[in-house]
Task: structure prediction
Amino acid sequence: MANQEDIQKITLVDENGDEALYEVLFTFHSEEYSKDYILLVPEGVEDDEEVDIQAYIFNPDENGDATEEDLIQIEDDKEWDMVEEVLNTFLEDDANFE
Result:
């Protein structure tokens, strides 16, 4: 796993106004949809802990950074399927967790 200093974090605010800190699992670009995606996990989870991974469309700035306001919900089922396929490929590759 990456060094703690290398892990990017973002704070999300839910519908109740509660804040939660998330770590960026990874980002990727889809040529098919011409969009960038970001996948997030709650901060501080153990490698073997089961968690809900948050996935969003995002519009990074020229430095590749984004804020919560840059995150867009994925509403298309086919787009969700594509994101899940990329996530599953990522999770199956043990090299991502060294």
About this structure: The chain has one domain: 9-95. DSSP finds one helix and five strands in the chain. The CA atoms of residues 60 and 82 lie 20 Å apart. The helical segments are 77-92.
